[in-house]
Amino acid sequence: LHAELEENGLSFYVGGDIQQLTLHAEMQTSNRLHFKIFDAKSKRFEVPHEHIPTVKSDYTSPISDTLEITNNPFGLTVRRKENKKILFDTTMAPLVFADQYIQLSARLPSHNIYGLGEHVHQRFRHDTNWRTWPIFTRDAFPNGGTHNLYGHYPFFLCLEDESGKSFGVFLLNSNAMEVTLQPAPAVTYRTIGGILDFYIMFGDTPEQVVQEFVELIGRPVIPAYWSLGFQLSRWNYGNLTEVKATVERNRAVDLPYDIQYTDIDYMEDKKDFTYDKVKFRELPQFADYLHEKGQRYILILDPAIATSKRVGDTPYDSYDRGTAKGAWVFESDGKTPIVGEVWPGETVFPDYTSQNCIDWWVDEYERFYQEIKHDALWIDMNEVANFQKGSVKGCVDNKLNYPPYTPKIIDEVMYSKTLCMDAKQAWGDHYDVHSLYGYSMVLASEKALERVFGSNRTLLLTRSSFPGVGKYSGHWLGDNGANWNDIKWAIPGMLEFGLFGVPY
Ligand SMILES: *[C@@H]1O[C@H](CO)[C@@H](O)[C@H](O)[C@H]1NC(C)=O
Ligand SMILES: *[C@@H]1O[C@H](CO)[C@@H](O)[C@H](O)[C@H]1NC(C)=O
Q1: Whose alpha carbon is nearest atom 5 of ligand 2?
Q2: Strand 376-379 vs strand 296-301: parallel, antiparallel, or unpaired?
Q3: What value does the mean pLDDT of the chain take?
Q4: Which residues on adjacent β-strands are paired with residue 345?
Q5: Whose CA is nearest to atom 10 of ligand 1?
Q6: What integer pLDDT is reported at residue 1 of this predicted model?
Q7: How far apart, in whole angstroms, are the C-alpha atoms of residue 25 and residue 79?
Q8: Bridge-partner residues for 46, per DSSP?
Q9: pTM score above 0.90
Q10: Which residue minimizes the CA distance to atom 8 of ligand 2?
Q11: Contacts of 453 (CB under 8 A, 6+ apart)
Q12: Is the pLDDT of residue 8 over 90?
C-alpha cells in the first residue's frame, strides 16, 4: 500500500511542518505489519539497523484485511484479521509531522501494556493514568525514579484479552522521544527526529509476539554454558591480591561460582587496553589461575579513550593509533575530535559507526588480548557517558543542541552527561544516533570477539542497548545500590528485557 499525504493547513507551534508525506505499508508475514510514514521529498534520518534489512517479506495476501486508512483527517486503523478487532487506531488525534516534532496517538484495546524502556518500572504492567516515559540513552542511576536510563526501547506488548491474544508495537526510531500512556486506553508518541517506522506483530500468545519481534530484530545469542553460572564482580577490589583473596574465600566454602570480573580498577590510570603494573602486576597469569579450577575471567572496557600521551613510562599507543585512523566522534566541523571527560580524565570518544574506528577497536582488542588472556568482555559507559556537559568547550546554541521541543528526559538538556547533539558520526548527527552508541559499540565489539575467539563461544555484556543487541550481547540492569528494592525491581526489568529480545 502506498499513499501520499498533504499538509492540511493547520500549522503546529514548533514550525518546520513537512508538507507532503508518503505512507508505505506492507504485510511482511501473516503476523507482521510494517508501515512507514516519511517525508515525500527529502531523505530524513533512518536507523541503519544491522538485522532488519535482512528480513524478507514473503506474504502476499491483501493488506486491507489488517489496515484501513481514513482521509481528512488522516488516520490508520489496524485490525486483527480473524475477528476484525481494532488494535491500533490513530484516528483519535491528528498526526503532526514537523522537522523536529512528530506526534502520533493511537487508541489501544486494553490496559494490559508491557515494555517501553529503559527505565525502572516498579511493576511489569504499565499504569495508563497519564504516565509519560522518556526514551533516550543516559547514564543515570536506576534508583526508582521514572527517568530514562541506559537503553532505548520504543517497543510495547499489549495483551488484548483473557484469550491471551496479544500484539506488539515497535517504533524503529532512535531519536529522543517520550511515550505517554493514557486512560482511553491509548498511547501517544512524541519523537523529535527521524521518521515513523512501525512494526506491529500479532500473536495468539505474548510468546508468539516476542518470537515475531526477535525474528525482525535478530534472535538472541545462545550464551556459553559457563556464562549461566554464578558471577562475582565489584568496583574497586583495589589490587589483584584482594581479588584472589575473594576467589579463595569462595573456594574455601565450595561456592559454585564460575566467573570473576574486574572493573576499571585493573587499568593503569583507568585507561583502556592497559593494566596496573603494580597493583595488578600478575594480571597476565590471572586467567590461568582461574582456569585451573574451571573458572572464567571477564574484564571491562569503556568507550572513552584518554587523550594522554603516556601511561607510566610508556607511550599510550591506543590513543595515538586511534587518532591516526580518525576513529573519534568529531565536533560539528566534522574534523576536530570532540573532547570530554570520563574516568581517566580528558578523553575522546570512538565513533563505532565508522569502519576506521571498528578496525582500530578490533586491532586494539586483539593486541590487549595477547597481553591479558581473558574469556569475555564487559562494556560500560556507552550511552555515551561524559562527565562534561556536551564537551570541554560546552555546546553552541543551535537547533540540534537546543531543539524547539525537548522530551521529558532526565535533566531536560539533550547533551547533559553526554556529547553535544551537533557532534558528527559516520551514521549521522549525534542528535539522531545518540541512542545507537551502545548498539554500535556492541556491533564493533562482536567483531573484536570474533577476531580473538573465532567460533568459540564467549560473552558480551553491555550497559547501553537498542533493539537488536540481544543477537550478540546480554545486559545488566545497571549501577543499582544492591538494596531490597533493587532486587524487587530487577523482576520487571528482567521480564522487560525478555520482551526486548535480550533474555541474557
Ligand atoms: C590490597 O587491597 C586491600 C583492600 O583495599 C588492602 O587492604 C591491601 O592492603 C592491599 N594490598 C596491597 C599489597 O596493596
Ligand atoms: C577454541 O577452544 C578450543 C578448546 O578450548 C581451543 O583449543 C582453541 O584454541 C580455541 N580457539 C580460539 C580461536 O580461541
Answers
A1: 456
A2: parallel
A3: 96
A4: 342
A5: 239
A6: 82
A7: 14
A8: none
A9: yes
A10: 456
A11: none
A12: no
Ligand 2: nearest atom to the Cα of 456: 1
Bridge-based pairing state of the strands 131-135 and 257-262 = unpaired
Average pLDDT estimate for 434-440: 99
Best mutation site among 456, 457, 458, 459 for ligand 2, i.e. most ligand atoms within 8 A of its Cβ? 456
Rounded Cα gap, residues 30 and 242, in angstroms: 57
In this structure, the strands spanning 460-462 and 376-379 are: parallel
Question: Cα–Cα distance between 201 and 87 in angstroms, integer?
Answer: 11
Q: Among 303, 236, 343, 297, which Cα is nearest to 459's?
A: 297
CB neighbourhood size of 255 (10 A): 11
Cell numbers given for 292: 585451573
Name the amino acid, one letter, at 327: A
Which ligand places an atom closest to the C-alpha of 291? 2
Q: Whose CA is nearest to atom 8 of ligand 1?
A: 242
Give yes or no for residue 370 CB within 6 A of ligand 2: no
Whether the predicted pLDDT of 50 surpasses 80: yes
Establish whether residue 453 lines the binding site of ligand 2, counting it when its CB lies within 6 angstroms of any ligand atom: yes
Cα(282) to ligand 1 centroid in Å equals 15
pLDDT for 374-421, tens place per residue?
Answer: 999 999 999 999 999 999 999 999 999 999 999 999 999 999 999 999
Q: What was the pLDDT predicted at 210?
A: 98
| Distance of CA 456 from the midpoint of ligand 2 (Å) | 6
Instruction: Calculate the CA dihedral of residues 107, 111, 116, 117 and round it to 10 degrees.
Output: 140
Per-residue H/E/C for 22-53: EEEEEEEECCEEEEEEEECCCCCCCCCCCCHH
Q: Which domains does the chain have, with CATH numbers?
A: 2-217 (2.60.40.1760), 225-458 (3.20.20.80)
User: Which ligand sits nearest to residue 239's alpha carbon?
Assistant: 1
Round to the nearest angstrom and report the end-to-end CA distance of the chain.
38
Return the pLDDT at 73: 84
- Cβ proximity of 440 and 430 under 8 Å: no
Q: How far apart are CA 369 and CA 320, in angstroms?
A: 19
- What is the pLDDT, as a whole number, of residue 13? 67
Pocket of ligand 1 (CB under 6 A): 238-239, 241-242
Residue range 442-462, pLDDT digits in tens: 999 999 999 999 999 999 999
C-alpha radius of gyration, the chain, whole number: 24
Residue 98 sits at φ, ψ, to 5 deg, of -115, 170
**What is the C-alpha to C-alpha distance for residues 348 and 132, in angstroms, rounded to an integer?**
34
User: Rounded to whole angstroms, what are the CA distances from 281 to 211, 265, 343, 363, 423?
Assistant: 47, 12, 21, 24, 39
